[in-house]
Task: inverse folding
């Protein structure tokens, strides 16, 4: 419990520092742009904080791809097992685990806050694990997708690869 509080405090401090440093430069720090992976996760939104508005990729006519202020990961940079899980989600299954597709309650409050039932979770196989392992894909009703490889301690928002 103390370790979790310490991590939250550090994440909050990092988030505030990032907010201060990027507040005067239009929202992105030098060398980064929306849709690129960032270092550490920022603090979880509070219950009363609305989710960050979607941000555009900057490509004219492109649909918004950001639903949170979490670090991002390009879909193509995910482990192969996570990409397979995303393909199964898009195809509607079948899923290998009985708990796939169940409601994710976001008890950790790392993801943007929404009403119960907004998020659903899916297992990402971990080679060598006998059980479900720690990796998950969590999807939101509005099309948002998140990846965790540490059993909900942290998440990265999955950003679709740019069309080539």
Result:
């Amino acid at each position: 419990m103390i370790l979790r509080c310490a991590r939250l405090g550090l994440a909050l401090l990092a988030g505030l520092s990032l907010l201060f440093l990027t507040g005067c430069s239009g929202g992105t720090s030098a060398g980064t742009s929306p849709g690129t992976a960032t270092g550490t996760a920022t603090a979880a939104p509070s219950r009363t904080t609305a989710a960050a508005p979607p941000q555009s990729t900057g490509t004219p006519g492109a649909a918004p791809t950001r639903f949170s202020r979490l670090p991002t990961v390009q879909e193509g940079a995910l482990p192969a097992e996570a990409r397979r899980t995303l393909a199964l989600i898009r195809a509607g299954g079948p899923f290998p685990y009985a708990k796939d597709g169940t409601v994710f309650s976001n008890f950790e409050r790392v993801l943007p806050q929404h009403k119960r039932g907004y998020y659903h979770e899916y297992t990402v196989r971990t080679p060598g694990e006998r059980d479900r392992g720690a990796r998950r894909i969590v999807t939101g009703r509005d099309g948002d997708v998140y990846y965790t490889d540490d059993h909900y301690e942290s998440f990265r928002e999955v950003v679709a690869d740019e069309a080539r």
